[in-house]
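Could you show me just one protein sequence together with its fold in token form as a worked example?
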Amino acid sequence: MTTTRFQEAPRDNVEMPLQLAKRKAELEAFASQERPKTARREQKLQKADEEAMDALKTLTSYLKFAAVNREVQAEQQQLQKHEEQGGDQTVAMLNGEVLNNELERLKGAKKKLEDELVATREEYEQLVQDLTTKAESARKQLKLARKQHKHECVQFNLKFDKDDKRIEALKAEVAALRSTQEQQQQERERMQTQEQQLQVQTLELQALTEHSQTLEQQNAALVNKLDSVQQCQQQWLTQAHYAFSCTQQQLETAMQAGLEIEQRAEALEQQLGALHAYLEEQQQEQQKEQLNYQQQEQEKH
């Protein structure tokens, strides 16, 4: 008797982890694309800070120059006051020519400082205007960059949330697949148990078949023996009829032995019929179980 083995279910589905890894790689690629943009924004901000520091340094220089100018003006005022109050006392203390030379030198230094102050003021005003223009442009660019960055962050967050939902769905699908695989494993174990039981029943049926054959052989031997006994009985009856020397008691004994032999033969025939019926019933049950097993296999595949 042949049996059909249960085919194993497919192995774990590896597509879901591959999709998760692919999605993770896409997110990392998107983040790597955003890093240069952020670096460029930081460079622009750093450049704006450097320009502001340069403007601050220029303003500091201008303030220092203004302080020096105030000191020169104070000296000029003191000299003018000294000229107004000097009179005869100043002429008496200093030589007029030396005083005039010093005065001319101070006037030349004043004129030079005034020219430098005018040039510096014009340069400072131009620098302030340039810095104001650059700062305004930088503010506009920074505002636009912040707005764009905010929009990109919102888009990235929306995309990330969508990916999170997709990942959660994939996780749920993986869990469902694992549950299905566990059920399939339990079904395989159950079918293997049924197959083992079927094999045990097959061995029992083979043993019963062999025993039935043995009984049939014994029955045939008993039938042959019964035939021999009947032949002997017939011979004895023939001899009893034709032999007057056989007593009535011997005849009855022979008849009784013949009846016992017939009873034993009938009992053996009944046992043989019961055995045949049992064997037929076992074969029918075996055929039903095998048919059910084949139907389950067909439904599963």
